[in-house]
Structures are given as C-alpha cells and as structure tokens.
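Design request, tokens follow.
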C-alpha cells in the first residue's frame, strides 16, 4: 500500500503553507496524535526529516539548526506532557530570537479539563517562550478553513516578525487513516513585507484603494495617494469615516448597498486596504493591507499581502520605483459615473434620516466637523457627499451604540473655534445624554436627534429583527422607554441645559427651520434639533435607496410612493421654500 498525504484538511493547510513559506527542516518526536502530519511529511521528498525521542533535546537541536542556518526549524510532537518538554528550549529560542516552530498535536480542545487521558491545556504558554500561539482546529466548514489558514499564516510569519522568535501551532487531529491524497489543494499564502524589502510589483489589472476608518490625512499622504492614483489609474473608495479629501475618491456605500450588488465586491483586481474598522464592505479579488502594525487583518477574507510600513512609505515606493508612464483616471471616471447615476435615480423619499441627509448634506458649513451614530445615521449620510473641507467621524472601533455624543462633545471642547455637528438616533441619545450636562459645552455644538421611539436598526425591512414584526418592539427594538415620544422630554432636557431647541415632524416643518441648524455663523447657544420620524417611513426610505438598480415590483412600489397626494403637495411646498 502506498502512502501520501493525510485527508485531514487542517493538517494539509499546515503542509501547504510550510512549503509556501520555504520551511522544510523538521525534527519529529514519536507519538500518536502527530502520526497524520509526520507520516505526510515522511512521504513527501520536500521535507528534510530528523528524529529525536526526547522533546527537550529536540527543541535544543532546533535551536542549534536555526542558529547555524538562519532558517526556521520545525519541531513536532504528540499530546500528553510531550509539549511541556519543549519549554526549556523555547525559552532559549525566545531570548535569542531563533525561528523555531513548535507543532504540538492534540485531540479536540473540547476534551480539556475533563480528565481525558493524555489531554493537556496548551492555550496559555509562558509569555517568554512563544511569540505567537494558534489553535488549528479540525475543518468542518468554510469558516473553519479561512480561520485556520489565517492563523497558520500568522504563526509562520511570526517566526520573522519584529526580530523573529519561536511560534506555536496546536494542531488538532481526528486520527484519520486516510493517507491517499496525492495532491494537496494549495492554501492561501499571506506574505509580509517591511520597509527596505524588495516589494512585489503592482499586478496587472484594475487597482483600488479602500480606506477604512481614518484620522485626518496629512498633506503628504494625500499627495502621494493622488500621485499613485494618477500613475496606476487607481481609485480611492471611501465612506464618511475615511476622511479622504483627495482628487480620486468615490463615496462608495450607495453603490455597494444596492440589493443587486455582489456583497460589496468591485471589479477591482487588487484592492489596497488602509485604515481600520469600517462600517462598509469594499472588496477586490485580492487585497493588500498597508499598516505600520504589520498585523494580518482580513475582514473581507481576501488578504494576500501585508506591508508593515507607513502608508506614505508604501505609496512613495511604488511611485518612485516604477518608471512606467502615467495611466490617467479612467477608473475614477467610471465609478464616479456609477455613483452619480444612482444619485440621479433616487426617487422622492419619505420623511426619514435618509431624506434629512439628502436635504442637508450639501449645506454643512465648510471646515466644520461631523460625527455620526452607529448604525442607521451613519449609513443614511454615507449615501450623500459632504463639502470637502468637512471632517467626519464615527465610533466604528467598538461599533456600539454607546459614546457617540460623548466623542462629539470631547472633540468640540478641544477645538472651540470650529463648529461640530452630530446626527444620532433616539436610543443612542438616551444612552449617552448625560454628556450634554458637561459644564464646558459651548455654542460650537449642534446635534440632530432622529426620534422614532425605538431602535430603528431592528425594524428596517432588511433587518433580522424585522421578521418578528411588531413583536420585536418590546425587547428587540426597545420601544417605549423614556415615555417614547409622548412627552417633550428631549426638548425640556435640552433647554434646561442651555441648548436652543428646534423640532420637525414632517418635511414642511423641517424646511422651515433647518437653515438655522446649518447656519455657518456662530450662534449664541449650542443647538439641538429633534426630528420625529415614523419607523415605517425609515424602512421604506432604506428600501427605496437600496433598490435603485432593481426592476419590476420595486420600481412599481417606488412610483406608488412617489405619487402619493401628500408627497406631491410637500414637493410643491419644498420648492417654494428652497427658492427663498
């Protein structure tokens, strides 16, 4: 009988990535749980195999091999106390920054703590023995495969990360006796590059830059990104947490929010990902992450390369070291055209957060700063352009309901010379309303509260909670707290704290007062604008703006909504008011 590779996919991924990262030297110790990987290595001529019956000795042997060759060495052992015997040698490797990879094989972690024989807990190795430790579980789903692939890449890259040192893979096995796999399906390889490395060439095809949550851009970074776009015909995809103000940006959420869109995927061959947590999905066929932290962050499961350097260093390298002629801006024109086409097809929307954003976005005063609440407010305003000089922020880091107003207040306090605007839902407002009692708040602060008496996110047509209808009101959408909308609670609270108060319950009322809110002149007091909307209108507005490319029933529904008598009347009123 001929033996080849094991049928266990998590072990196959280890084998595939060891080869992809150029790691071939193996010291194996005898045991049962490591049979699947050791046998696969033994029958593969790529690997250079050594044997050591004592794991203590095996690890020190690996230290000697790595010190001599400057290359990684792998040590493989079974369960029970075998892995504990690696600790003396791993301590040596840690303090000498030697690239030793310990693969300890095991049964499922579900057995830990249940007095199952030969099962030990390897979840917390001593801090000065391992740089990176990962658990590579048995693969049962696509999610498992992605997770294992990322973790194993991370462990292998860790052998040379920040000066290098020992890493650890705790490798689960199910004792498969299938060794018939001749060709292993390659696992996705993730490579890391640092400043000074010979960086890979920019691939052929369409190039995009996706910007997640980002602080204010330096003039230098904006310049090199724009020059990069000119050179490679690239486009920058951003939302209102990205703060990109350059020449080649496309506000993309309106495009990717369409129900016909392909899960946020653009026709981009290589997407360069900079920034942090984003509320928006923006994927290319492959993604390169650029960040000084050098970590593998793969929110869209497309990362193939990580560049541990500043964004300025990355883009400057590709501008200076590629002597090809500039390619122009055809991709930018294509996607700005796509965005504008969608904007032009937006129908009359019901009175809602989205409608308010549509009316007010272009009037936000120049050089002011705007904060948005998670998630309905941020998503609503992400459909519309703001003036280029307006900086925009949203608490996407923790991505929770709390702290939005406090963050706005803190920013306004530290920059009293600027105007600060915020848009939040009523539940977020109640959650964080105590921050408005701060004694140092001044007249540079203006806040919109979109009040529909519940958590709108759980009532929108596309929401998981929406399947329960009105049953979601009591606990899921938390309707009725703070007496709902039956008392002037927010009005009284705001005025007692010295705020000027505005209110609107429909489009006509809004159009009569909104200019006060966006007045670029400094007012005498901070201002709070409470806008009362209906949950059904909020959901309908979201459905209309996310189905602009739909045909059939959605178009029919849109026309019915647009031609309602009350909307026709309001359109006439709005035109008269806007002319004044």
């Amino acid at each position: 009988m001929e033996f080849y590779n094991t049928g266990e996919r998590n072990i196959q991924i280890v084998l595939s990535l060891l080869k992809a990262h150029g790691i071939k030297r193996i010291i194996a110790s005898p045991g049962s749980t490591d049979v699947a990987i050791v046998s696969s290595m033994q029958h593969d001529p790529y690997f250079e195999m050594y044997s050591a019956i004592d794991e203590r000795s095996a690890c020190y042997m690996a230290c000697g091999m790595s010190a001599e060759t400057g290359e990684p060495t792998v040590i493989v052992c079974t369960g029970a106390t075998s892995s504990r015997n690696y600790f003396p040698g791993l301590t040596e490797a840690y303090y000498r920054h030697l690239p030793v990879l310990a693969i300890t094989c095991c049964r499922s972690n579900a057995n830990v703590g249940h007095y199952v024989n030969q099962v030990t807990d390897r979840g917390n190795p001593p801090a000065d023995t391992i740089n990176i430790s990962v658990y590579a579980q048995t693969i049962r789903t696509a999610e498992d495969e992605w997770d294992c692939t990322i973790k194993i890449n991370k462990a292998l890259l860790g052998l040379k990360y920040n000066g290098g040192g020992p890493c650890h893979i705790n490798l689960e096995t199910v004792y498969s006796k299938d060794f018939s796999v001749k060709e292993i399906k390659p696992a996705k390889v993730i490579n890391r590059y640092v400043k000074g490395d010979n960086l890979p060439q920019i691939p052929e095809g369409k190039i995009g830059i996706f910007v997640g949550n980002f602080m204010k851009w330096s003039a230098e970074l904006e310049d090199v990104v724009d020059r990069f776009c000119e050179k490679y015909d690239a486009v920058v995809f951003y939302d209102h947490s990205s703060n990109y103000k350059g020449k080649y940006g496309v506000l993309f959420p309106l495009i990717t929010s369409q129900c016909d869109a392909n899960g946020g995927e653009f026709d981009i061959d290589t997407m360069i990902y900079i920034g942090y947590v984003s509320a928006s999905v923006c994927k290319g066929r492959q993604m390169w992450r650029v960040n000084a932290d050098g970590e593998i962050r793969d929110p869209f499961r497309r990362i193939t390369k990580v560049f541990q350097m500043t964004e300025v260093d990355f883009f400057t390298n590709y501008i200076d070291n590629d002597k090809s002629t500039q390619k122009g801006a055809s991709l930018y024109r294509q996607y700005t055209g796509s965005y504008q086409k969608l904007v032009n097809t937006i129908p009359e929307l019901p009175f809602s957060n989205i409608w308010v954003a549509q009316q007010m976005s272009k009037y936000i005063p120049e050089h002011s700063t705007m904060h948005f609440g998670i998630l309905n407010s941020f998503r609503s305003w992400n459909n519309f352009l703001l003036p280029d000089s307006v900086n925009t922020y949203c608490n996407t880091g923790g991505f929770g309901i709390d702290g939005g107003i406090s963050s706005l207040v803190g920013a306004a306090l530290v920059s009293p010379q600027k105007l600060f605007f915020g848009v939040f839902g009523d539940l977020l407002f109640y959650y964080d309303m105590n921050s408005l009692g701060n004694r140092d708040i001044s007249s540079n602060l203006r806040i919109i509260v979109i009040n529909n008496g519940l958590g709108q996110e759980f009532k929108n047509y596309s929401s998981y909670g929406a399947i329960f209808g009105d049953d979601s009101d009591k606990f899921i959408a938390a309707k009725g707290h703070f007496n709902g909308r039956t008392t002037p609670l927010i009005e009284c609270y705001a005025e007692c704290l010295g705020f000027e108060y505005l209110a609107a319950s429909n489009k006509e009322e809004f159009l009569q007062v909104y200019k006060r809110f966006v007045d670029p002149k400094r007012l005498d007091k901070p201002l709070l604008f409470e806008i009362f909307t209906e949950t059904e209108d909020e959901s309908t507005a979201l459905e209309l703006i996310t189905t602009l490319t739909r045909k059939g029933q959605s178009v029919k529904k849109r026309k019915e909504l647009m031609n309602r008598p009350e909307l026709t009347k309001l359109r006439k009123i709005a035109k008269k008011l806007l002319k004044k």
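Comment from the thread starter after seeing the answer: thanks! The longest strand covers residues 100-106.
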